[in-house]
Amino acid sequence: MFVDPGSGKVQAPELNSRRPLEKYKKPNLRKALGQVFNTFLPYFALWILMVFMVHRGYSYWVLLVLTIPASLLLLRIFIFFHDCCHNSFFASRRANRILGYLAGILTFTPYDDWRRSHGRHHNTTQDLDRRGVGDIWTLTVKEYLAAPKRKRLAYRFYRNPFALFGLIPSIYFFIRQRFPNKVAGKRELYSVVFTDLAIFAVIAGASMTIGLGTYLLIQLPIMAIAGAVGVWLFYVQHQFEGVYWARHENWDPRRVAMEGSSYYRLPKVLQWFTGNIGFHHIHHLHPLIPNYHLQGFYDSEPAVQAVDPVTIRRSLRSLRLNLWDEEGQKMVSFRSIKGYPRQTEK
Q1: What percent of the chain has pLDDT over 70?
Q2: Residue 16's pLDDT is what?
Q3: Is 343 part of a structural domain of the chain?
Q4: Number of domains in the chain
Q5: What is the spatial distance between Cα 324 and Cα 157, in angstroms, rounded to a whole number?
Q6: Can you give the residue range of the structural domain that contains 108?
Q7: How far is the C-alpha of 73 from the C-alpha of 37, rounded, in Å?
């Protein structure tokens, strides 16, 4: 559901029946605990195996192979963290908060601080007049042409795939999230301090047991891969061919969900590791539906099945989409505006 910026009333697209929606919004303790066990246990088991391999002198290349499933499991843990931030994973708010803090320590993400910024994302995504919080940096063609050279170079660097999916995720998770957002309150500040201290305690404990070197050899590649894949998923969710953007006065939350948020159709194994987050159009329609009910809701509701899916091949084409063309109402590439005259920003 969404809060209409004009009236302040909660809005949601019409469905065939309210009964299926309420059914899928209701958390299921058995499914939630099943996900906790089938994800956390293999993640920690892989960690133990990798520690054993480092201490036994196995080739680091073999270890790096194991970091791939470990990083995907950590990504899945982040999806649970995300659901907890929406209070949808468990029926109990306290249980969501506890698991959210624990998952936040593993993913280097402070629960309450991220929860607040993510809520902002849901209320402002695809709004050209409210960009800048919890989204991918996106400029319009006019803004880019009117920007000084330093800003244009910074934007092109940011949009370079090696930076956006390589360098930036590591900076974000290792450094940026160690500090609260500018508008953080006491609860958000507490979550940052608590998470930072917990991460420091884990590192200190690892240093005294398995060794700091062993910890870094395992943790750094896991975080780097999980961060890169996570940012890629977030990118594809709102940056694709045919995506919807609008100025604030024309911003429509229904269109944000159905046209501004993608249905990223992935192979079943990747759908499992990504916690069904590919059904992102459904998530923006109804954020209270937990990840384990998204497939069921999709299968039961023809309205959401009508969305044209983004396939892996189609998602790769989105890498060349860098700017929003307000006149053409579409994303365009840097190459497409080559030769355009510089503009003066009003």
Answers
A1: 94
A2: 53
A3: no
A4: 1
A5: 17
A6: 2-337
A7: 12
Q: Is residue 344 part of a domain?
A: no
pLDDT per residue as tens digits for the range 137-179: 999 999 999 999 999 999 999 999 999 999 999 999 999 999 9
CA–CA distances in Å: residue 208 to residues 93, 214, 220, 223: 35, 11, 18, 21
pLDDT 10s digits, 236-257: 999 999 999 999 999 999 999 9
Residue 179 lies in a domain: yes
Can you read off the two tokens belonging to residue 192?
């940052």
Residue 96: what residue type? N
Per DSSP (E only), the strands in the chain are 2-3, 10-11, 139-140, 323-325, 330-332
Residue 59: Cβ-neighbour burial (10 angstroms; 0-12, 13-18, 19+):
exposed
Average pLDDT estimate for 76-81: 98
CA nearest to 66, candidates 54, 80, 82, 57: 54
Residue 239 lies in a domain: yes
